[in-house]
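Hey, resending since the last one bounced:
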Amino acid sequence: MIMFPWYFLIFLTGVLVPTYAIQWRWFGVPFSNPVLLMMGLITIWFGIESKSIRSLWRIFRRPEVFLFLLWLTLGVLISEDQKASLGMWLYAGLLPLMTAMIMAQNRSMRRVFVQGLVWSGVWLTVLAIGQIIFSGDVTYRPTTVYAWGLDVGLAPGGFANYLGMILVPLVFLSREFVEDKSSWIITGVLILGVLASQSLTAIGSLCLVGIMALIQYQGFRRKRLLQWGLVMGVILSLFAAWQIHTPKIQNLTDMSQRNSLSSRVQIWQASTQLIQDNPVTGIGLVDYEMKYTEVIPSIAFPPHEWLVPHPHNLFMGVWLMGGLLGVVWLLVIIWQLFGNILHQVPYSRYSKLAFVSLLILGLVDFPFGRLDIMSIWWIALLSMSQFSPERRSLL
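The structure tokens again:
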């Protein structure tokens, strides 16, 4: 497992994960380059490390993994579009989970894979800044690769918000796994990408978790806290000066107009109604947009948003995708997170912060259900709760 091509393949997979949005079809089945790379990694690993299959089976039996797969399967069974649900079950469920499980088998593979993910965030940032520059509008919301083949006008700002969701956890993962002199430069580039996304949710999550990191890991050394507080204040002041006169900020609290807050309030009201109508089983993995259009006219007509793919809340979304089982799964993960924090498990501090950032993002958005975000989700979770550097495997 120390062959150069193997580690290069791992790194390349991480770098190209966001390109899942660029799809092509083979005999009518959608594929993308990172999907094929992940399938190749899994196949090669099973061929080389056949004796380690038992370790994967033991991980599959862990509560957070078993409940996830059970919940995901239930979401397929109750869905009215089982073909699309099966695609999500494979591409956003099983594939990133198994890839992360294999990468977590030893620290070297895990480091190389996360380094690839971090560098994917770097090229996404460069592309986002390039789009802003060439648009000629400093308030342009970059879409990078996420709007490939889609009508950007259907979800203005949505693709940029997703870019912010991807970059925030990568900011923290970059501190743990990029261990050279360029690490702070890379972290700075990722922070610049979060700002370029102009996502208030992403920027708020980054600042909040950053403050948590300073307090928990830098201690209460006044000088260090003041230094970082000053840096954070300057960054936020510059962002505020950049965005203060944009319609997004000017109309943020006007509930009569279409904006981020008013749209979310209507979406949350519709989601609450759907949960009340389907409290136990939910509505299916990919059925939210269809069910939302049936419910929203009774709440607001015309609504601020007609085409909504998810409820802009992680907890509501998981509940609706597969019912109460998904809520139990999330509670198990949160319980493990707090147990990890209380017991100060070593070598996982930034994985914890990355995972906390995903949960905070999930309060007003949906960092879930796509190949890249799920790869980050599972590598952070397994790094946080499973890995011990004193042992070669998870067991």
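The radius of gyration is 21 Å.

Sorry for the duplicate.
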